[in-house]
Amino acid sequence: MPHSHLARPTVRPAPGWRRLIRIVLCLALSCLVGAPAAAQDAATRERWREAIAASPFEAPLSVVSEARAYGVSGSIHARISRPLPVLAGELTSAAAWCEILFLHLNVEACRHEPHAERPDALSVHVGRRGFQPLEEAQRIDLTLEVRAVLPQYLSLGLEGDQGPYGTRAFRLRLQAMPDGEAASLVHLRYSLAYGTPARLALWAYFNSVGRDRVGFTVVGREADGSPRYVGGVRGMIERNVMRFYLALEVHLATLALPESDRLETRLRRWFAATERYPRQLHELDEATYLAQKRREQARQPAR
Fold it and tell me: Where are the domains of the chain?
């Protein structure tokens, strides 16, 4: 579709003084206390590299997950062709995370008010597949927590009391280290907790319409020798941490584009990236996805 069909993205405002003070303090404290253990530990860096090297994917990334009685988490280790200062400069912005999350097909809207009392807060509206009124979507309030911005280490995360579809304790956390001068190693971890009602609802879903939904971890072989992929809540968390990672990768790869071209390019690239894994991630055709996102973008508030 021609670019004119897309609502013109608004220019994100310059970082507020609170964000600048936070980054300066993090850098100043690094001179006093040194890098955290994760950055100092060469073994951690090597473990990340080994996880990526063992990946079955063509891209330099790996996916793992873990399920417990009342929670589930999925992690991606990857190598991104962007230096750590670029990640630190961009990903310490709540507005940037709104742009990243918005690419997910189930995110109806993401709103960030930089002049509010909490400039690191954002609200995400999660809905069903397809366009729907915001009042019918679930609102999830998140806060961007920046833990460390150091020359050799970046640590931050989005946190919220509630998660999608009756879950709670939303956590999307990122750690990164430099890998040479032009690339970074990243660890992206997405986790949710759930009580008995949500667990029962998930059980019902995965034993009915969600029975065939799978993740990326191979847990065996089918009778014909093809891979048998993990399902259930682990499959769910693996699909979504991959969607978030691909959105992050696309966002960083398009920073050099003119502001007016970024959203359309990101939408197309994110969809193309998900189509590399059709067994796990295909849900819509490209035309439907683009039309949905253009309608959703048109109602995004000006920033």
Answer: 10-298
Could you tell me which of 99, 122, 125 has the C-alpha nearest to residue 262? 99
Six token digits for residue 228: 């048998």
Cβ-based burial of 224 (10 A; exposed 0-12, middle 13-18, buried ≥19):
exposed
Compute how many other C-beta atoms are within 10 angstroms of the C-beta atom of residue 209. 9
Q: Which 8-state DSSP code applies to residue 14?
A: P
User: In the chain, at which residue ranges do the beta strands (DSSP E only) sit?
Assistant: 61-68, 71-80, 107-112, 121-126, 138-150, 153-162, 168-178, 184-193, 218-221, 227-229
Tell which residue, 154, 188, 3, has the closest CA to residue 78. 188
The predicted model gives 178-190 an average pLDDT of 96
Q: What is the pTM of this model?
A: 0.86
Residue 21: φ, ψ to 5°: -60, -40
The chain-wide mean pLDDT, for the chain, equals: 87
CB 230 within 8 A of CB 214: yes
> Which tokens sit at 89?
């400069």
Rounded to whole angstroms, the Cα distance separating 124 from 47 reads 33
CA distances, 261 to each of 9, 112, 204, 300 (Å): 8, 21, 42, 17
Helix (H, G, I), strand (E, B) or coil at 173: strand
The fourth-level CATH superfamily of domain 10-298 is START domain (3.30.530.20)
Cα–Cα distances (Å) from 6 to 75, 210, 253, in that order, read 33, 33, 20
**Between 202 and 157, residue with greater pLDDT:** 157
Least confident of 26-30, 53-57, 125-129, 233-237: 26-30
Provide the β-strand partners of residue 68: 71
Q: Is 227 helix (H, G, I), strand (E, B) or coil?
A: strand
Q: What is the CA radius of gyration of the chain?
A: 19
Contact 182, 81 (CB under 8 A): yes
